[in-house]
Amino acid sequence: EGSGKMASLDRVKVLVLGDSGVGKSSLVHLLCQNQVLGNPSWTVGCSVDVRVHDYKEGTPEEKTYYIEFWDVGGSVGSASSVKSTRAVFYNSVNDRNEYGSCKAYAYPRRDYDREQFADNQIPLLVIGTKLDQIHETKRHEVLTRTAFLAEDFNAEEINLDCTNPRYLAAGSSNAVKLSRFFDKVIEKRYFLRDGNQIPGFPDRKRFGGGTLKSLHYD
Question: What is the pTM of this model?
């Protein structure tokens, strides 16, 4: 009976995008298995894993959902071949603006028009997966740049070390941001199909104009 109930859960799809080697698979494994991925390998095509999430946990609206993580391989090759390879896995991302957002996030090293995301309604989460590999003397500079990137995407931001589960410990600020992000994804998928503003999106202050070159660390 329990397994049948779980099988009937509604689900949402989260695309995990980024350059090759940034730690996408390690992140997904940590999120879904609560374990460090000991020997990560290159993802060819796409890998899918699932996590159970309690929407609005502790409230009368609480409901359990599956979160499907589509770990899309950061293919090595020309920009056109990478785009065509990844596009196969965007088939359920039907909104044109949402697809544009995915493409911009998938290629963070390029310049982009920040105004494209000014009124973004798509839940985005920018995750820095290798905080431990940033030298102390560079950490402030790098984290400031990732903060600007998240600002431009109207996204929440998390920085962690995927080899240390404590960064996602229950009750931590990262865990709270992650849960809030999943709630927004569920709201967008099931409750706000008319495109209204998603509750809880931060009213972010903009930090000046122009474009921003993204960094190698995403």
Answer: 0.75
